[in-house]
């Protein structure tokens, strides 16, 4: 969990990262009757569209044994919980030393959405992190025990599976076509209340909130709160164009600044996780940094461009390709890279073994080399 010195950046829910304790029982609304596989005709409101979409949005309740939360919890999660208590003035459920449920269990709630009629479900990785048991509840009250197929903390995406057939489901849309100002609909389970629908617009695109190396969030003012984590952000066609993941708030509640993982990234991670439960990422083997203004000036650039290689790890694809400290990477497969995040994403979105053309600058001379990527082993490019 990344923290800031300003307003709190909060992941919306989870067991170890939960901000609410399930109160037992979930309020339900009348279920829809048809699978959400296509958007109905649009009118002056979203009544028909919401009726079609909400049956595919589920509440996810996770159970974690108290011994797991306290004794085995990673230090980073404990630090986050302590930070939460300090900022919001209340103990965070699941925090070591805080009372749990009878029997030594603690519970948290989040949201997910069904993407196949046979029970494949998408949520956030932090929702199910450390869970001993995951229960999925549909709008009509049906409950299923879910299996965690796989989770990718780097993008905060997880895939679950339940044994069921003929389920209502939704599909991913194309987040690359989004525009600022476009209407969106968020559906989730805030504070354990059950299915809740809010609307808003796309406030910004490509946001980096320093949550991880692949930050490229959709920012929206649709009200999302703790418990909405893992829920879908829909466009007006009823397609999932984002997975609601985090908020920035000085109070812990919605102030109109929420963030969703774009479907372009989420759908690729879901496909990868669904295969074998893991995500394969290309790896170059370098430590990188932005190009400083001084270096840019020395090279005759008006401003910093490209990505500086600060170090090359031994026995890596980068070393085999002949990269050296001080080289400036300009493009990957013809696409320009301007920041370290650009290079990290460009390399990590490719599979190990892929051949990639990298253009770089050395002592003012531009060179192109083909690199066969290895397996990604850390957060560097």
From TrEMBL:
Residues 280-338 form the PDZ domain. PROSITE patterns: PDZ. The keyword Hydrolase applies. One of its GO terms (biological process) is proteolysis. Pfam families: PDZ_2 (PF13180), Trypsin_2 (PF13365). Coiled coil: none annotated. The keyword Nucleus does not apply. Residues 1-38 form the signal peptide. SMART domains: PDZ. InterPro entries: Chloro_Bact_Ser_Proteases (IPR051201), PDZ (IPR001478), PDZ_sf (IPR036034), Peptidase_S1_PA (IPR009003), Peptidase_S1C (IPR001940). GO terms for molecular function: serine-type endopeptidase activity. Keywords: Hydrolase, Protease, Signal. Gene3D superfamilies: 2.30.42.10, 2.40.10.120. This is Serine protease Do. It comes from Roseivivax lentus. The lineage of its organism: Bacteria, Pseudomonadati, Pseudomonadota, Alphaproteobacteria, Rhodobacterales.
């Amino acid at each position: 969990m990344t923290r800031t010195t300003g307003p709190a950046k909060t992941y919306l829910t989870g067991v170890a990262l939960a901000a609410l304790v399930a109160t037992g029982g979930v309020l339900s609304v009348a279920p829809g009757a048809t699978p959400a596989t296509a958007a109905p005709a649009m009118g002056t409101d979203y009544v028909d569209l919401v009726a079609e979409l909400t049956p595919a949005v589920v509440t996810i309740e996770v159970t974690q044994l108290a011994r797991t939360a306290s004794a085995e919890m990673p230090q980073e999660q404990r630090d986050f919980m302590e930070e939460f208590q300090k900022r919001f003035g209340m103990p965070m459920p699941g925090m070591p030393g805080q009372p749990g449920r009878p029997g030594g269990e603690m519970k948290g709630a989040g949201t997910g959405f069904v993407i196949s009629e046979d029970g494949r479900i998408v949520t956030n990785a932090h929702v199910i992190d450390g869970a001993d048991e995951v229960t999925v509840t549909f709008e009509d009250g049906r409950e299923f025990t879910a299996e965690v197929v796989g989770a990718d903390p780097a993008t905060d995406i997880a895939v679950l599976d339940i044994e069921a057939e003929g389920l209502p489901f939704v599909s991913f849309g194309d987040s690359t076509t989004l525009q600022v100002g476009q209407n969106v609909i968020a559906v989730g389970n805030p504070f354990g209340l059950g299915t809740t629908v809010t609307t808003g617009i796309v406030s910004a695109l490509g946001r980096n909130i320093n949550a991880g190396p692949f930050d490229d969030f959709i920012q929206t003012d649709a009200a999302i709160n703790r418990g909405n984590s893992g829920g879908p952000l829909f466009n007006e066609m009823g397609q999932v164009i984002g997975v609601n993941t985090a908020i920035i708030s000085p109070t812990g509640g919605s102030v109109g600044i929420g963030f969703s993982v774009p479907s372009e990234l989420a759908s690729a991670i879901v496909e990868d996780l669904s295969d074998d439960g893991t995500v394969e990422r290309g790896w170059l083997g370098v430590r990188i940094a932005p190009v400083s203004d001084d270096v840019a000036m020395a090279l005759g650039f008006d401003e910093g461009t490209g990505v500086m290689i600060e170090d090359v790890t031994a026995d890596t694809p980068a070393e085999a390709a002949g990269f050296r400290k001080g080289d400036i990477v300009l493009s990957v497969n013809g696409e320009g890279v301007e920041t370290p995040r650009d290079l990290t994403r460009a390399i990590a979105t490719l599979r190990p073994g892929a051949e990639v053309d990298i253009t770089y600058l050395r002592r003012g001379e531009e060179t192109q080399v083909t690199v066969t990527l290895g397996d990604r082993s850390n957060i560097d490019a």
